[in-house]
Amino acid sequence: MAIIKPFQGLRYNQDVIADMSSVVTPPYDVISPQEQERYYQIHPNNIIRLDFGKDIPGDTEKANKYTRAAEFLSNWRKQGILKQEDAPAIYIYDQEFLFGNRRLIRRGFIALVKLEPFDKGYIYPHEQTLPGPKADRLKLTQSCQANLSSIFALFPDENNEVDNYLSTVALTKPEVEFTDDTEVKNKLWVIKEKQAVDKLVALMREKPLFIADGHHRYETSLAYREQMRTENGRLGDDLPLDYVMMVCVSMNNPGLQILPAHRLVRNIKDFNFDRILNSLKESFTVELIGKGCRVEDFMPKLNAETRGHTFVMYAGQEDTYYRLQLSNEKLLDTVFANEHPEWRHLDAGILHSAVIHKILGIHSTDVALKDFVKYVKEETDAVSLVKSGQYQLAFFLRPTRIEQVREIAMSRKVMPPKSTYFYPKLITGIVINSLKVNECRM
């Protein structure tokens, strides 16, 4: 099963950095250019300079955002801004947040997990990956020789054995505590006691891991390991490059929440809304929700639907929304005859294959998919981007269920990109894992 172990993490030195919220960010792939610039301005030691640096005019192969990230990392260590743990540790990580009118805590732990190829072993993906993000993350890993952010993984814990054990260990005051700019309270406990670490390792020994977020970074870690072993000839076993840093959370944890990632679409060739609407009516029951409607009015009802496959479409016309419910099941036989038959059970799969691909002419496998499709969490943001003319259509979805994630992953199949939005997002910069052999004693 999955192999986990403690490690000597690099953490911001709180004797130097008084306000942790000023130096951390969300994951790079949810940061807009405007937010990137804001993080640059907040603090000169913000992790944005390492994990999601800016391109600068005049950049070359030898001087660019990746080489600058490595320089920042090296300098911050020399200056004592980042400090390495004095002994191997596993980190218990809480995120406390408001969800609707409930206050929830999602608890997990940060450890190293031994890399395994996806086609064997006990680490399972559930989403497609794209070449562009993997190339970007590989260049960053090569330059910094570090995991700058954690992969997010889930594990079955039917009897809450692991969660209960974490609660017995995290009784003292956390070493790190801060509220980030999304009003999520983050807490970190550093567990170095060998007996406590060994007990957690033993509890996890029989458990598979399902990647929730970080598929590109996991595949990057595999590629980096193979590249380093190929370039350096025979290397020893059990090296830092054989592991990757993960936050592991129980599938039973009450704080585990999945939001939908809504789709925005642009650059539709020969865009004609009436033609699109007529094409949709061939396979969907199309219901006009009403002019002057607000997105807040229909989302609770959409989320509450438990049967069939239903979306809401918005084209920016007089605040008019359309409810689309699949009515032609035979369509799925045709659409999924040759590719991704498992998608026929997923709202996101049907939307991508039967609507975005078949009707709008945009392929999920396009390298430049980002030129056509944008994924957003906030419904009001989606409406604004269509109203502004930056996007032509918005599609609102229900959340993917955790049971669907597990079923797809266990069958070693994948969902469409961004089929899940696990909330809240992990914080980047709370712990860093160095991959340099002479610096990582484990």
The helix fraction, in percent, is: 25-40%
What can be said about the biggest beta sheet?
A: 9 strands, mixed
- Net shape: globular
**Whole-number total of structural domains:** 2
What is the radius of gyration?
A: 23 Å
Per DSSP, what share of the residues sits in E-state strands of 2 or more residues?
15-25%
Search tags:
442 residues; alpha+beta; Conserved hypothetical protein from pyrococcus furiosus pfu- 392566-001, domain 2; 2 domains; 9-stranded mixed sheet; 6-stranded antiparallel sheet; 30% helix; 23% strand; globular
Give the topology.
Blueprint: E1 4-5, E2 10-12, H1 33-42, H2 48-51, H3 65-78, E3 82-84, E4 90-99, E5 102-114, E6 123-124, H4 131-144, E7 146-147, E8 151-155, H5 161-169, E9 176-179, E10 185-191, H6 194-204, E11 209-213, H7 215-231, E12 243-250, E13 257-259, E14 262-265, H8 273-281, E15 284-290, H9 295-304, E16 310-314, E17 321-326, H10 330-335, H11 347-357, E18 373-376, H12 379-387, E19 393-396, H13 402-410, E20 421-423, E21 433-434
Parallel strand pairs: 6-11, 8-12
Antiparallel strand pairs: 1-5, 2-3, 4-5, 4-10, 5-12, 7-21, 8-11, 9-10, 13-20, 14-18, 14-19, 15-17, 16-17, 16-19
Helix pairs in contact: 3-4, 4-7, 5-6
Describe this structure in words.
The chain is α+β, with helices and mostly antiparallel strands. It has helices at about 35-40, 50, 65-80, 130-145, 160-170, 195-205, 215-230, 275-280, 295-305, 330-335, 345-355, 380-385, 400-410; strands at about 5, 10, 80-85, 90-100, 100-115, 125, 145, 150-155, 175-180, 185-190, 210-215, 245-250, 255-260, 260-265, 285-290, 310-315, 320-325, 375, 395, 420-425, 435. The protein folds into 2 domains: about 5-255 and about 425-440, no CATH class; about 260-400, 2-Layer Sandwich (Conserved hypothetical protein from pyrococcus furiosus pfu- 392566-001, domain 2), CATH 3.30.1760. The protein contains 13 helices and 21 strands. The strands form 5 sheets. Strands 1, 4, 5, 6, 8, 9, 10, 11 and 12 form a 9-stranded mixed beta sheet that branches. Strands 15-17-16-19-14-18 form a 6-stranded antiparallel beta sheet, sandwiched between helices. It has a two-stranded antiparallel ribbon with strand order 2-3. It is globular and about 65 Å long. The model has no long low-confidence stretch (mean pLDDT about 90).
